[in-house]
Amino acid sequence: MPREDRTTWKSNYFLKIIQLLDNYLKCFIMGADTIHLSLQGKAVVPMGRNTMMRKATQGQLENIPALEKLLPPLQGNVGFAFTKEDLTEVRDLLLANKVPAATRAGAIGPCEVTVPAQNTGLGPEKISFFQALGITTKISRGTTEILSDVQLIKTGDRVGASEATLLNTPNISPFSFVLVIQQVFNNGSIYNPEVLDITEETLYSGFLEGVCNVAIPHSIISGYKGCLALSVETDYTFPPAEKIKTFLADPSAFVAAAPVESEELDEDMGFGLFD
Asked: Which residues form a coiled coil (predicted)?
């Protein structure tokens, strides 16, 4: 099958982005380098140039104004991951896609690296190399063995030439390329990916911790009244506010009918003094 020319490819790409923006209300904005994606059909990832993605997005602003929030994050080597599935589940799938990365001298370590105790398979002539790194070794059956776990790099440390040489051995290689989720777009709102880690349990425990630190209990009541007032003035509601909103909508519905009082007989059993 002949390869389509660049003009046709760009036209088809724009059409694809426009269709995705129309059909999906949720997406991730992510940085990606040399990542092979395996998303099990739960997301669509149309990688392309920033200028093309921006142009396609700008073309849809008239139909979907909220897409304007996607434009600022489109900087650098980023892409979209459109989904209709649970965002937390898809986030975990995206982060699970990794490829091994060579360790370069002078690079900044993205994570802590601990070299475990093991037989390196390297010859005894490498002992001085390990000694220079402060790693205790011994010769075992003609090869160099590391005797105990050693923390070689801390997060943010610059990798030296010796560290890079050691970390590029096949049985260590701790670094990898991984997707970096920068922003989450969800039904017109955009926020940091850390928000996806907030669960009901997190909110509940945070509330309980806050209650313990409140010195004046009436502050809680005041906050509750504020929530009720907010609910009354907006479309947002929650169960305790329903009764108040119903009352304000029709106060007469809450007026109890006055009880019919039975006529009490006079003390003289209905007879007057002169009857």
From this structure: none
